[in-house]
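Thread: quick sanity check before group meeting

JM: Hey all, I'm pulling together slides for Thursday and realized we never actually wrote out the predicted structure for the chain we discussed last week. Dropping the sequence here so it's in one place. If anyone has concerns about the input, flag it before I start.
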Amino acid sequence: MDIKKPRVISLFSGAGGLDIGFEQAGFRTIYASDVWQIACDTLKQNNMADEIFCGDVRKIDFVAFKEKYGEIDCLIGGPPCPPYSQTRHYLVGKADGFDDEHAGFAVPEYLGH
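JM (edit): ok, ran it. Output follows.
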């Protein structure tokens, strides 16, 4: 009996830690993304996903993605949280939070998909 593995999209994937856990739980990552080239190279080297996008998550065309892959079973990711984490209290510009130009978009972008 051939059981189809649940399909995962992984955003803000880093080196694939979440993906490894999901793979061990029986999922298959069909798409992974990160903005850091070293992380993307690691994902590729370890064959962590069917397709890997190295770039800003805001540049992913999710409409085209849905046309290509159809429905998925799970969305996972590790969006950067420094703009609104406890450690922000020790940083300059702590009041900026979601307006942080480097990562303030990440959590709302992740939750919007």
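AS: nice. The beta strands are 7-11, 28-34, 51-54, 74-77. The helical segments are 17-24, 37-45, 62-69, 106-111.
JM: adding both to the slides.
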